[in-house]
Design brief:
With 353 residues, the protein is of the alpha/beta class. It is built from 12 helices and 15 strands. Strands 5-4-11-10-9-8-7-6 form an 8-stranded parallel beta sheet, covered by helices on one side. Helix 2 runs parallel beside helix 3 (98-107). It is globular, with a radius of gyration of 20 Å. The model has no long low-confidence stretch (mean pLDDT 92).
């Protein structure tokens, strides 16, 4: 029988009796890896148009975290790392080219974690890279992804990952489902992996964590991802266009003169040709590039997201994420809706532009 799977717009959190007197009193502190906690469960996406040193500093200042993307040369990577000499609690990103992995790890100055970031994390490439890092840097926590199945969770846990990053073709500029027909609705992917991780942690005495990466368009999506069992949400499009993202603010349009910034996936035509220098005939794109409205400082954007998540917990009678996870494991915590539910849940008498 084919499994039914759901995304964020398919589900709602069901409110219950609450003694939370104010959403501002809800504690969103969350542990990313053992001994490393952050005030908010948000990590900026490790994308080249989202997170470099400036974004990492802003995320840390606002209680979250971020990791440098992996699309640097050794020279530019070292230059960016040097900007973080007075920071702690951030990460770096690598792929599966072991020569580059070794080079980046030897340059990095005490990152709190490393992300092994590839499109299909349930693979031999991932297994070999985890083994290499565990051998050479046994104390460095590894975030591994992306995955979307329980089987992948079992394997990556066995290989030695500390955190599992969940999301296959759920991102706002990912086109893998369109191009390859491969993917998994994000809410169900997170829920399935998180349930498996709870079993692994209980049986093996481990403390593996889960990141939901992709599909978050609104604060409510972030709340649903955390409710599904994620310990953190990784945000790309929601933070794209802020002051702290790499790139210049551009002005476009004729009469409206809108301010915008570039947001692109590493698998887009634009990134592969312009940034990575590939020939057009060698490009196979599973991502997109676009301009997004300039949003101002990331701290202001994070404020709205955090308040939305806190509000979700207050509706569910939860003072912290531990209580929220426990509540959301009950079937009664969720309800499924049709497309009519989706329409009803929007400000439906307001005309949208």
């Amino acid at each position: 029988m084919i499994e039914h799977a759901y995304t964020f717009d398919d589900v709602n959190l069901t409110p219950t009796y609450s003694e939370v007197d104010s959403r501002s009193h809800v504690n969103l502190e969350s542990e990313l890896v053992s001994g490393l906690k952050f005030k908010i469960p948000i990590i900026s996406a490790n994308m080249n148009t989202v997170t470099e040193a400036r974004m990492i500093k802003a995320m840390l200042e606002n209680g979250g975290t971020g990791a440098l993307h992996r699309y640097f040369t050794e020279e530019t990577f070292e230059r960016e790392i040097n900007k973080l000499h007075d920071c702690s609690g951030y990460g770096i990103t690598v792929g599966t080219d072991l020569n580059i992995v070794e080079a980046f790890l030897s340059i990095a100055k005490n990152p709190s974690y490393v992300i092994i970031d590839i499109a299909h994390g349930h693979s031999k490439h991932m297994k070999d890279t985890i083994k290499f890092i565990k051998t050479c840097y046994p104390d460095l926590p590894i975030i591994a992804g992306n995955i979307c199945t329980s089987m992948a969770a079992w394997d990556l846990a066995e290989w030695g990952a500390s955190v599992l990053k969940v999301g296959i073709s759920a991102g706002g500029i990912c086109s893998t489902r369109k191009i390859a027909g491969v993917g998994f609705p994000q809410w169900s992917a997170v829920k399935n992996v998180a349930e498996t991780v709870r079993t692994i942690n209980k049986n093996e005495g481990l403390n593996i964590k889960v990141i939901s990466d992709g599909g978050h368009r609104l604060p409510g999506d972030c709340a649903k991802a955390l409710g599904a069992g994620a310990d953190f949400v990784m945000l790309g499009s929601m933070l794209a266009g802020t002051t702290e993202t790499p790139g210049n603010v551009l002005t476009t349009g004729f009469e409206l003169q809108k301010k915008v910034k570039l947001y692109q996936g590493s698998a887009s035509h634009n990134a592969q040709i312009v940034q990575f220098g590939k020939e057009k005939k060698d490009v196979y794109a599973e991502g997109a590039a676009t301009f997004v409205p300039y949003k101002g400082d990331v701290g202001d954007v994070l404020f709205d997201i955090v308040k939305g998540i806190q509000s979700a917990l207050s509706y569910c009678g939860c003072w912290n994420l531990e209580e929220f996870h426990e509540y959301c494991q009950m079937d009664a915590a969720w309800n499924f809706g049709t497309f009519a539910n989706f329409n009803e849940g929007r400000p439906h008498i307001v005309k949208e532009n």
